[in-house]
Write a structure and sequence with these properties.
Helix content is 69%, strand content 0%. The protein is an all-alpha fold and 86 residues long. It has a domain of 32 residues. The N and C termini lie far apart (85 Å). The model has no long low-confidence stretch (mean pLDDT 83).
């Protein structure tokens, strides 16, 4: 007894490639993609920066407390502005 494959079902990758190939990549499509993509990337970058900054400040405060610095000393260090290197 022999079996015959009538139609092979396309794999997931083949389906994705066929959908991507159906998109018309003209100036309007690229304008929409970049017009939406740039603000999304900028927003993600902004919030990533805020998270990293907050985390580093918390680590600095924790290390100063572990070293036994007083609250006034910690406040003075955090209020100090960084000096500009020439």
């Amino acid at each position: 007894m022999t079996y015959r494959v009538v139609a092979a079902r396309p794999t997931r990758v083949e389906e994705d490639q066929s959908m991507l190939s159906e998109i018309v990549w003209d100036a309007d499509t690229l304008g929409v993609v970049f017009g939406c993509g740039i603000p999304i990337v900028a927003t993600i970058g902004f919030f990533w920066y805020k998270i990293v900054k907050t985390t580093s400040e918390a680590e600095l405060k924790r290390s100063m407390i572990e070293r036994g610095m007083s609250a006034d000393e910690i406040e003075r260090v955090l209020a100090a502005e960084p000096t500009k290197v020439k």
